[in-house]
Amino acid sequence: MMRSLLEILLFVVPLLLTAYSFKVEPLTIRLIAWIISGLIFIGAVLIQVKKAGERNRKKERDREYRRMLEGELVRQASPGGQPATYANGLPDSPLLGRFFAQGQEYEREFKFEEAIEEYRKCLLHPDATEENKVAANMLIGNCHYRRSRFKEAEGHYTEALKISKRVKDRKEKLQGRATALGNTGLVLFDKGDLEGALENHRKALEIHEKVGNRDGVARAYCNIGIVLGVKGDLDGALENFEKAIKVFEEIGQPSHAASVYTNIGIVLFQKGDLGAALHNFEKGLEAFKTTGDNEGVAKTYGNIGNVLFQKGRLKAALESHSKALELHERIGNLSGVAADCGNIGIVLKEKGDLEGALENFEKAIKIFEETGQPSGAASIYANIGNVLFEKGDLEGALENHRKDLEINQKIGQPVGVARAHGNIGNVLLKKGELEEALENQKKGLEIDKMIGNASGMAANYGGIGNALFKKGDVEGALANHRKSLEINKRIGRPGAMAINYSNIGDVLLQEDDLEGALANYRKALEIDERIGNALGMAADYISIGAVYFRKDDYKSTALLQLQAVLIYSQIGMKPNVEKAQHNLAISIRKLKEQGKFEEFLQEAKEKFGEEVEKLLRGSFTADKAD
Questions:
Q1: Torsion angle of alpha carbons 405, 407, 410, 412, nearest 10°?
Q2: SS (H, E, C) 148-205
Q3: How far apart are CA 442 and CA 419, in angstroms?
Q4: pLDDT greater than 90 at residue 175
């Protein structure tokens, strides 16, 4: 307050002195007054110039080095969320059995168009019964579903529901109806109608329980769990998965139980409990191996790779995704091959191998487009956009995110539409187009609110907070980051909460609330340490270091930055290593200026081992600190 008053006086006094000088005589006194006024004014200007320079330097030194993964991992498809097969009468029919068998063979080879032609022969055959027509429509719908043709799939499931009303056998009528309802629920889920999906799966559950179809009961529980997971009710999801496992084990279907363990792992992954997620994936993996289900083994390797990636174990993640790729190539599952290439691309991006990442993404895109899977292709375009963003090619990034948006709008996947708007907003934010960035984040939020996607809403509020922060709206930024934090707390996502605390810390740091920033960064670190997120921990060390740097505590800053360097080096993230080394070099230069480098070196050796001395005395500290 006193400083601001002094600055005002430095401008006002010369003006008053100059005005007063016109009333005094003689001329020499007037000239002296003008000179004094001029000197005071020049001094005031120089002070403001110096302050502006200090603000710019502060912004530069406190620039955020946290790298946030803006896209999504190309997740393996959830095994419990696959359409159920209903083939009533077809396998045993002397007239239609061969068409059914050939269609099944084509499906195993992922030749869905050819499979549809075979099933259509069953549907249109003059001797086909009502039961046969229900089954044929279901099978055709399943092929369309697997190619992300949701409108066509829903049409055939609806037709199956209509025909089922004419089936005379009550049990078969109900069985066909329940299967059609469950599969329609999957379509509604992918279209973003979560309430509609939940309603269909619950109706299917009721019918399966009524007719005593225990397998159908377990599948319905599993599908309900998947929907609840996306809605953010992670505990409700786990409850339904536990029920599914109990039924599958009672009826002796260990392979299906293994699939549910995988779904439990996915929910625990969302909750940030990486250790428990890994444990469930490994249980599922052993069960799949025991039953000889190579498809399940491959998918589970992919999910294990995703957990290892999140834990910062990039080498192990790459090995796991490579095992998945090898198996999918061996069994001829092109969709799996594409997903694995996508996941490998994400790991390579994180390691700094951007060209290798793009090469794998291009392979994935080619397969998804050749096999007619627009949903998969859209995810890859999003990831290509993220790589180009990293390379600084903002126009290329924008082009790919808009392709992602266009595809998801075309196939009617609102979750993907919301994601694309968020990524477009991130690129526009980087380009400085703040209004458009904010508009895209708000569009994403509106969609996620409409479909009840809690995790998406939390991400949107975070994106809006970042845009408002760039616009200088500190209160708005904090309000949105806190809304995001509140949602993530409610749905139990500690990993996302850590990012929220970090974002709040960034805003407070910029506002010179050092204690507030430090408290939030420490909360982020506490969470990342608890869930074993090495990447998050390294970023937290850098953020906390920025606060200590602002406090002129260069030793604490350097120790934290050294921890980040060691983590990134162990993981193999070359770009992040270089950024962290640059920060560390600046701190070391400050320590040397204060004559405290040797004291810091001794403490670093005690904390991290003798081998760090070579690193700290290495050449990078000389050429990176400029």
A1: -70
A2: CCHHHHHHHHHHHHHHHCCCCCHHHHHHHHHHHHHHHHHHHHHCCCHHHHHHHHHHHH
A3: 11
A4: no
Contacts of 6 (CB under 8 A, 6+ apart): none
Q: What per-residue confidence (pLDDT) applies to 89?
A: 63
The string of DSSP letters for 409-478 reads HHHT-HHHHHHHHHHHHHHHHHHT-HHHHHHHHHHHHHHHHHHT-HHHHHHHHHHHHHHHHHHT-HHHHH
Q: H-helix or E-strand containing 269?
A: helix 254-271
DSSP string, 542-607: HHHHHHHHHTT-HHHHHHHHHHHHHHHHHHT-HHHHHHHHHHHHHHHHHHHHHT-HHHHHHHHHHH
Distance CA 76, CA 431 (A): 33
Query: Which has the closest alpha carbon to 182: 209, 212, 153, 202?
Result: 202
**pLDDT for residue 57 is more than 50:** no
Q: What are the tokens at 502?
A: 């970090």
Token code pair at residue 201: 């799966």
Q: How far lies 30's CA from each of 11, 18, 39, 41, 368, in Å?
A: 19, 8, 14, 16, 84
Alpha-carbon distances, residue 121 vs 61, 180, 327 (angstroms): 70, 20, 33
Token pair in block for residue 83: 């359409």
List the structure tokens of 430.
């980087």
Q: What is the DSSP string of 482-510?
A: HHHHHHHHHHT-HHHHHHHHHHHHHHHHH
Would you call 214 exposed, middle or buried from its count of C-beta atoms within 10 A (0-12, 13-18, 19+)? middle
Query: Which pLDDT tens digit goes with each residue over 209-258?
Result: 999 999 899 999 999 998 888 777 888 999 999 999 999 889 888 778 88
More confident residue, 30 or 120: 120
For residue 58, pLDDT over 60 is answered with no
143 and 108 in contact (C-beta within 8 Å)? no
Query: What does the mean pLDDT of the chain come to?
Result: 84
- Predicted local distance difference test score (pLDDT) of residue 6: 53
**Which amino acid does the sequence have at 611?**
E
The model's pLDDT over 176-197, given as tens digits with 9 standing for 90+, comes to: 899 899 999 988 887 768 889 9
Using the structure block, give the residue that is written with the tokens 């740091």. Answer: 509
Q: What is the dihedral of CA 551, 554, 557, 561, to 10 degrees?
A: 150
